[in-house]
Amino acid sequence: MKPRFPDGFLWGVSSAAYQIEGAYNEDGKGLSVWDTFTERPDKIIQKADGKVACDHYHRMESDVTLMSQIGVNAYRFSTAWSRVIPAGFGEVNEQGLAFYDRLVDQLCAAGIEPLLTLYHWDLPQALSDRGGWLNPDSPKWFADYAALMSERLGDRVKHWMTFNEQVCFLSGGYLEGWHAPGFSQGYRGLLLANKHVQLAHGLGCQAIRAGASAVKVGMAPVAIAGIPIEETAECIEAARAFTFDLTKHENWHTSIYLEPVLEGRLPANFEKLFAGEAPEYSTEELKLMHQPLDFLGLNFYNGPYIKAGENGPEEVTTRVGYPPEGQYWKSTPEGLYWAVRLYAERYGLPAIITENGLSCQDWVALDGRVHDAPRIDALTRYLLALYRAVDEGFDVQGYSHWTFMDNFEWGEGYRQRFGLVHVEFVSQVRTLKDSAYWYQRVIATQGESLWDGGEYKPTQVSHRY
C-alpha cells in the first residue's frame, strides 16, 4: 500500500492581494506603497505594475471555480489593507469589505478553507507618508485593521496569519530600497521598523482572538534553513546553527525577526552585534510580541548546503545537479524536510507550508495546453521530502502551493510564472497547466500518486562537490 498524507490535510494554493486583484483605484480603494513604488523608474522589470494584474477583483467567482476544478480544499490569500481602510486608519470602505465577504462566502460554498493573511507587503500609502513602520503608532494602526477584519470575517475564517515574510518587506523596503516603499534608512531604521512590526504582530494576535472565536492564529515567515550536506550529527548541528544562531552583523538572519515573537527574547549576540543601531526592548514589549500561536506558516523555496567547519558552520557553494529555475533560485527539494524539522524542533509549533513552488518558462502550446514537466518533477520531489517529515512524526497540517495562478511578481513584473494556472495578461484567459492536473491527482489520492511507479523511501540525495 502506498503512503498517504493524513486525513484532514490541507491541500491548497496561495496568492497575495496586490499580485492578483488589480482594481487598484476602484470602489473606494486607497493607494498602497506598491501602487506608488511601481511608478518609480527602473524599479520594476518592463515598468510593470499591479493596476490590473490578474483582474481577480472582477473575476473572483470564476477563479474560485478553477480552484474547485483543481480540487484544493484550502486557499491562502491576503486582504488589501488600503481596500478596506483607504487611509490606513479611520474611515472604513464598505465596498472593499464586501469584496472579501463575497470571496469568503464563495470559498466556503465550494468547500475550500480560507487561510487569511492580513499583511502581504502592501501598506497603505497614506500610512507610509506618516513614516510607515517607522512610526510608533503603526502597531496600533495594524491592530485596528486586524480587529476590523476579524470581526467581519471571523465567523467563517478560522486560519489567520498576521504577517508574510517580514525579512523581505523590511530589509528590502527599509534598508536596501529595492522593495516598496523604497526607503534606505540604514540598520537603525530597519531594526526600529522590525520592532514595530513585532509589536503589531502581538497586538494583531490579540485583536484577531478578541474579534472571533475558535480561530487558529499564526504567521508566515521566510523559512530560511540550512541543509546538512551529509546527515551526520556534526553537519546537522551545523545546519541548525546556521539557521538560528546570530553570529554576524547582517540583515537577513531569521532570528532577528522571529526570536522575539516566537521565544519572547532577543537573539543571543543581538545587542552586541547591533550596538548603537538597535532599539531597546522592554520586558513588557517582549511579552506582548510573544503571543501564543497555533501554527507556523513556512515559506520555503530553497536553502544552502551546510557542513561543519573548524570555526562553525560553512556553506557548501560548489555542487551540481540542481539547475536554477526561472527565478534564478536553485531548487533544493530536500530542504523542505529540513525546514519543517528545524523549525519544529526549535519552536514546537505545527507547520503549514504556506508557500512552495518554482518559476518556469511556461507557454500555451499548439495543442492548447501548458506542458510544465520541470515543475511537476520538482514539486514531486518537494512533496516527497515533506512526506518524510510527516512520516517521522512532525505535525504538518497542510501544503499551499505558490502560486494559484501566474501573477505580478513584484520587482520581476510579469517575467516570472509560478502558477498552476497560466494567465495571458492581456486577454486574462486562464489555462490550467499540466501541473494543475498533476496536483489534482495528488489531492484526489491524498498523495498516493506521488509514488506511482515506485515504493516510498525517505528522501536521500547524493551530492557531488
Could you walk me through the main structural features you see in this protein, from its secondary elements to its overall organization?
- With 465 residues, the protein is of the alpha/beta class.
- The chain has a single domain (10-451), classed as Glycosidases (TIM Barrel, Alpha-Beta Barrel).
- Helix content is 38%, strand content 14%.
- The protein has 16 helices and 13 strands.
- It has an 8-stranded parallel beta sheet. A 3-stranded mixed beta sheet has the order 6-8-9. Strands 12-13 form a two-stranded antiparallel sheet.
- A hairpin with a 4-residue loop joins strand 12 and strand 13.
- The model is unreliable at 458-465 (pLDDT under 50).
SSE blueprint and pairings:
Elements: E1 10-14, H1 17-20, H2 33-37, H3 56-70, E2 74-78, H4 81-84, H5 94-109, E3 113-119, H6 125-128, H7 138-153, E4 159-164, H8 166-176, H9 186-211, E5 216-220, E6 227-228, H10 233-244, H11 254-263, H12 270-273, H13 283-289, E7 296-299, E8 305-309, E9 312-316, H14 335-347, E10 351-355, H15 373-391, E11 396-402, E12 421-424, E13 429-432, H16 434-444
Parallel strand pairs: 1-2, 1-11, 2-3, 3-4, 4-5, 6-8, 7-10, 10-11
Antiparallel strand pairs: 8-9, 12-13
